[in-house]
Amino acid sequence: MHSASPAPRRAARPTFWKRLWAGRRAYLFLLPTFVLLGYFAYYPAYIAFTRAFTDWDGFNPPTFTGLENFRRALTDPAMGQASANVGLWIVLGLLLAVIPPLVVAELIFHLRGPRRQYAYRTLFVVPIVVPSLVLLLLWTTFYRTDGVLNQLLGSVGLGAWQRSWLADQDTALYALIFLGFPYVDAFYLLLLYAGLQSIPKDVLEAAKLDGAVGPRRVWTIDLPLLRPQLFLIAVLSVIGNAQYFLSPLVITSGGPGYATTVPALLMYNTAVKFGEYGYALSIAALLFVVIVLLTVVAQRVARAQGD
């Protein structure tokens, strides 16, 4: 009677240091990249977080102050106004990032003939080559008291609505948010158009046979299948608008008062104009935490929708 032979023993997995030594030549080639990445990306972030707990003017050695900068930021009325402004900007900016590009992508996708689709797609993408600063200056003239907007309102009998849009505290923030409206972001447009092109033809034909055409097809077929693209646009829009401060800086300098001030602009002014780098870095740290939280919430919502 033969006894059962023992099972072969699995080879022991090499340790981390043995695997590192085995791939030393590859890691040696990657070392300059890691060094530059750490110095130019992670080291500044480390400095920003550590100096956020100090009183620092950007030149002299910092003095540790604990949580004082964060307490000041959370009780600063200017920071409160800036937070409310950026909250409104994020919500309206999200709508502008999704709705106009989606409508235009649907219209182009349903054009007959690839040449027409290519021509209209190019027409909406070409403005990318225009520097954003030039567009901002052009729209500044649009909002002036004698600008195109007031002239249009006067020509249709709405002269009572005429005003200095960028100097009025009630309209300045909305004027900046809707600057360029009807706004179609070329990158978001191409992203959604590519998503529409990736929908299988048999799905579209089956939907057509079931009577799902027009808005019903968009609601029942296109939007569910465009969910990955819409989620990516939502995340990019939230992150971009939370950090954005170019148009308030160039056009209104955050005014009138704090009507168009956002946290990123407040951080910039605090550091560059007033030399309070420690306090400015605490605002940057808070902004980073808020952006991470918003991204996590967006991911959870998208995952729940996917389930």
UniProtKB/TrEMBL annotation:
Q: Where does the chain cross the membrane? A: 26-49, 86-111, 123-143, 172-194, 225-246, 277-298
Entry membrane topology:
Multi-pass membrane protein
Cellular location(s): Cell membrane
**Can you supply a Gene Ontology BP term from the record?**
transmembrane transport
Q: What is this protein called?
A: Carbohydrate ABC transporter membrane protein 1 (CUT1 family)
* GO cellular component: a single term: plasma membrane
Its main subcellular localisation, reduced to a broad class, is: membrane
Family that this chain belongs to = Belongs to the binding-protein-dependent transport system permease family.
Looking up PROSITE patterns in the UniProt record yields: ABC_TM1
The residues covered by the ABC transmembrane type-1 domain are 83-298
Q: What Pfam families would the database entry show?
A: BPD_transp_1
Q: Which Gene3D superfamilies match?
A: MetI-like
Native species = Deinococcus yavapaiensis KR-236
Q: Which UniProt keywords apply?
A: Cell membrane, Membrane, Transmembrane, Transmembrane helix, Transport
